[in-house]
Amino acid sequence: MPKSNVKLMQGNEACVEGAIVAGMEFFAGYPITPSTEIAELSAAKLPKIGGKFIQMEDEIASISATIGASLTGKKSMTATSGPGFSLKQEGIGYAIMAEIPCVIVNVQRGGPSTGLPTAPAQGDIMQARWGTHGEHSIIALYPSTVKEIFYTTIKAFNLSEKYRTPVILLMDEVIGHMREKIEIPNKDEIEIYNRKEPTQAPSDYKPYEIKNGDIVPEMASFGKGYRYHVTGLVHDETGFPTSDHEVAEKLITRLVNKIEANKDDIVEYEEYRLEDADEAIIAYGATARSAKSAIDTLREEGRKIGLFRPITIWPVAEKQIEELAKRVRSITVVEMNLGQYFEVIDRIAGKHTKVVKYGRVNGELINPKEIIAFINNRRG
Amino acid sequence: MVHHELRLSGSGGQGLILAGIILAEAALYDGKNVVQSQSYGPEARGGASRSEVIISDNIINYPKVGKCDLLLALTESAYDKYIDSLKDGGTLILDTTVNKVPERKDIKVYTIPILDTASKKLGKAMVANIIALGSIQRLTNLVSKEALAKAVLNRVPRGTEELNKKALEEGFNLINNQKDRLYGEVC
Fold first, then answer.
1. How much is the CA Rg of chain A, to the nearest whole Å?
2. Residue of B61, B65, B150 to mutate when probing chain A, most A C-beta within 10 A
3. Helix/strand/coil percentages in chain B, nearest 5
4. Which chain A residues are Cβ-neighbours of B25 within 8 angstroms?
5. Cis peptide leading into residue A315 (ω within 30°)
6. What is the CATH number of the domain that holds B137?
7. Distances (CA, A) of A380 to A199, A304, A371, A376, B79
């Protein structure tokens, strides 16, 4: 018999467990398939640890409540699927602009619109990047196993606290709904990052002032005596709106650079059987699991093929992908859409190697045989 | 090296999703790698319902069951829908209430009274899923008896432990009288 902390767990459940370990104290949501279990389990678990769960009247209210709770110092999360993710974009932009940490889970399903409610799709890659308007950067993570959902959820909270930004956790229906083995670690084995709070008197506090050596401003919690203005308008260090062009340029550049300039800290990826590979597959989430199975078979047939799997989907692992492109003769991007991430990879890798896409949008997880057939046919 | 894919099928309400979870949990207790998934949406309500389990000594990458090694079919519509998804040489456990004789000659067929044993012998139709698990264990030895018993008791409602233990025994017994046809490695 294995240790008692080894469990059979559903992906959506692992997300909630990870969130609670990360310090989630608030969840507001409007349940939607295939993410519903995340709301359901948050409702069951949060009250027991002194947290709050609210089912809101819609998705915009959910993201707004999530942002509001975060401003009081509580780590907050909301979960949805494509149709709800569309609605939450307004709030995501607000959280980017006002620098409010929060985690938005999107367990994707077939789209557009209400699409295929119970079927997997990876169609929200670009929406995660550019769903909200205006110049911005974003952090989006994409786990591939139930165990990884647990750790990636913790990472999503940590990054959101560290960089004071909303972090998107993109998940696949296949993994959200399936159960597999997970070993829950002891809490002291897990690194938790908490936002830095101001130490000066409330009267001396400038909410958007960056102190020496810091990446982001210190964040006061509402209810602790600090009063300040929070706005989606361009604002200066005091938090009040301004239309000063110099302030605007400085602010937006800083918001983008705090993510783009810290890629080395944010970007995470896995390389599978790439050591001696002369061709590569790039895939993420559930599709990467199919790719691994395909690679194992292709290797038996003598092909030197491996997988590069981005776990951080945004920002892109540009440096690593360019390095990979220089040493393989082809990269096949496999995804459950018609080439959203392929376009990104092609821009980075296309000048060094041949980049091709294999995409499906039939509501089924791409299987290893399809990948093998595609790769074999392409060669011939 | 064990790598076994099972599809448990029947109608919504027969507890097949729970059965899949229990089987997966038992495999986990035995130290195996395991993935469990199930049908969602309209097909999970009333129509053909299914739960799928992969049990392996290896890491399981592709998590879906395509062609299965073992198919449990508790209803005729589940049988019709999934019989072609059974591998050559695979094992079919068919409830006796399913009025069909498989035409396929390449498979092993065990026709046993799972639903009747639950409703008539034990007086509780709801334990059919646990009887089925007992039969699957006895037939395949994919999971140990101890692990399965522990997994069952972990997941069934309080106060039904004795009933479920009996159901498991009945499941073993349904196969015991077909002893010469057992297969598989003891875990």
1. 21
2. B61
3. 45, 25, 30
4. 8
5. yes
6. 3.40.920.10
7. 66, 16, 15, 7, 40
Looking at residues A212-229, what average pLDDT do you find?
96
**Do A125 and A23 fall into the same domain?**
yes
Chain-centre distance for alpha carbon B136: 5
> Phi and psi of B101, rounded to 5°?
-115, 115
pTM of the predicted model as reported, rounded to 2 decimal places: 0.96
ipTM above 0.85, yes or no: yes
- Taking an 8 Å cut-off on Cβ atoms, the answer to whether B41 and A367 are in contact is no
Q: Which of B115, B153, B141 is nearest to B16 (CA)?
A: B115
Phi-psi region of A38 (alpha: psi -120 to 50; beta: other; left: phi over 0): alpha
Based on the domain organization, do A243 and A286 belong to the same domain?
Answer: no
B55 to chain A, any CB pair closer than 8 A? The answer is no
Report, in angstroms and rounded to the nearest whole number, the Rg of chain B calculated over CA atoms. 15
Give pLDDT tens digits for A148-174.
999 999 999 999 999 999 999 999 999
Chain A residues touching B21 at Cβ < 8 A? 8, 179
Q: Which domain holds residue A55?
A: 1-266
Same domain, A282 and A244: no
A33·B34 Cβ contact <8 A: no
Torsion over CA of B56, B59, B63 and B66, rounded to 10 degrees? Answer: -50
